[in-house]
Write a structure and sequence with these properties.
- It contains 18 helices and 17 strands.
- By secondary structure, it is an alpha/beta fold.
């Protein structure tokens, strides 16, 4: 499913109305009617709704919703953020229509204190129809005051299109926001619905089809995609009935160091449990027995002298032998960052000609050894968490501008960026971006990212393109986390349970 920004959805409206001569008033009517029906369905026991109507078309949608809720027998009141005589176009028409109904209407102003106190007593459900998708800067004036007032109450909130105060196209948050338990959006989900920090204010997101023609959406060439079950079914390939272990690729996982053998073993678990035909682990000798005890399915090459606790530059010759014939390479889990290990990474990167996934310590080395960027194969996949991303980009706003940061790094360095976290982002150097909707806070546990790197390597080895391998791995990794949380509770999710829950179904 596409993820739209405010400009794209505005353009879709414009094409349908101006080029295809479809009356805009019908789009507003359909939006309001479907939203009201959804509200009635989901809130059958609520009898009182307060519509917060802003000055533009989002306010007009709110007026249509108010009308249909009234017709359904609900008590409805409307609080305008400004004088509604300023409405234009379709919103103005709906303002005229609403005057025919016995619905109480108030205009926010200096004398609104008494009304605001009174209206809270019967505990209405708030319908936030203040701003919609049209803002990209901080909010001022009466809208800001209304948001500030109701944000300090505990009233339930339904957002129309998006909670007022969010940037639809970036996931940024402006000023105070009315945190919604339900967001009803139209035609396409918006970027802010699934990108943090904005997504944390949206609650459950429901997309309502208001009748913008599919051809118009296709013509916009939207390159951001929300990964869902349709995405999985579109890209997943059934295994060949006559396949064998050589058919499904051979992954080489490189990592481990003193006290960190588990990380590379967990990456191997993710690799094997997601369908790679073969998996080899290249690790210091001291880690070898730990890896084999945890993962007897893998081949483990212990390098260095007996009991060696880190990889060193001299291990590069052995790596050259081992990497031959491999289908994908994962480097980084538990590898360490000392000078000897940095020298090893610098020596082996030029040897790699297959899909490469860099994770964990490999990313931290890359952040300090900027000369290594020149040795990355085309479409190298980087899998940073926010802290690693901050070190890679030298930006302090990673958490506030996740989408922008991920896409900028992918384009500038010509890599595939997997920015982990709630709503993991996969950004391709070619401009395509995939945003994940699976997963849960229980996955915030040690080793979860190691499992993911192994899954990405597995899918690359099985022949998926690098960007689709990364995107599918992220989606399935989150789905496995949801299965594990369902079985063990979020607090009971561990990396091993996560890997064990992996399935394409």
């Amino acid at each position: 499913m596409y993820l739209a920004d405010s400009n794209q959805i505005r353009k879709a409206d414009q094409i349908q109305i101006e080029e295809w001569k479809y009356p805009g008033i019908l789009l507003m009517e359909q939006a309001g009617k479907l939203a009201a029906q959804e509200i009635i369905l989901r809130y059958p026991d609520e009898s009182f709704f307060l519509v917060l109507a802003g000055p533009g078309n989002n306010g007009g949608d709110g007026l249509v919703i108010a009308r249909y809720l009234h017709l359904a027998g609900k008590q409805v009141e409307i609080l305008y953020s400004s004088d509604p005589s300023g409405y234009k176009g379709d919103a103005a028409i709906n303002f005229e229509v609403i005057q025919r109904f016995p619905i109480r209407q108030e205009i926010f102003g200096k004398d609104s204190d008494e009304y605001l106190r009174e209206v809270q007593i019967p505990r209405p459900v708030l319908i936030d129809a203040l701003l919609g998708t049209g803002i990209n800067a901080g909010i001022r004036g009466s809208v800001a005051e209304i948001i500030q007032f109701f944000a300090e109450t505990d009233l339930r909130v339904i957002a129309i299109d998006l909670p007022s105060g969010l940037d639809a196209g970036t996931g940024a948050v402006f000023n105070k926001v009315l945190s919604a338990e339900l967001t009803l959006t139209f035609q396409l989900p918006k970027i802010c619905h699934y990108i943090t920090p904005a997504s944390g204010f949206c609650g459950e997101v429901v997309v309502l089809d208001i009748g913008i023609w599919p051809g118009i959406i296709t013509s916009l060439w939207i390159q951001r995609v929300l990964m869902d079950e349709d995405f999985l079914q579109t890209h997943y390939r059934n295994r060949k009935m006559d396949g064998h272990k050589g058919t499904f690729g051979h992954v080489l996982i490189v990592g481990g160091s003193r006290n960190m053998a588990g990380a590379v073993a967990l990456a191997a678990m993710g690799c094997v449990n997601s369908g790679a035909g073969l998996c080899s682990v290249f690790t210091p000798d001291s880690c070898r027995q730990t890896v084999l005890s945890l993962m007897p399915e893998v081949m483990c090459i212990g390098v260095g002298e007996f009991g060696s606790q880190r990889m060193m530059e001299r291990d590069a010759d052995r790596f050259r032998e081992v990497v031959a014939g491999k289908s994908a390479v994962v480097i980084g889990p538990g590898m360490g960052q000392d000078i000897e290990t940095q020298a090893f990474l610098a020596a082996v990167l030029p040897m790699i000609e297959v899909p490469l996934i860099l994770d964990a310590d490999a990313l931290n080395i890359l952040a300090t050894r900027t000369d290594l960027w020149n040795y990355l194969p085309e479409k190298t996949i980087l899998t940073p968490h926010p802290g690693e991303m901050q070190r890679l980009t030298k930006r302090g706003d990673v958490n506030e501008k996740r989408l922008e940061v991920a896409e900028e790094l992918a384009a500038r360095r010509r890599v595939i960026t997997v920015l982990k976290g709630a709503g993991t982002i996969v950004a391709d150097a070619g401009g395509a971006t995939f945003v994940n909707k699976t997963g849960n806070p229980g996955m915030a546990t040690g080793g979860s990212g190691d499992v993911l790197s192994g899954v990405i390597g597995s899918l690359c080895a099985q022949g998926y393109s690098a960007e689709i391998a990364a995107a599918l791995a992220v989606y399935l990794h989150g789905k496995a986390g949801d299965r594990a949380a369902e079985k063990f509770g979020m607090e009971g999710v561990t990396a091993r349970r996560l890997a064990a829950a992996f399935s394409f179904l």
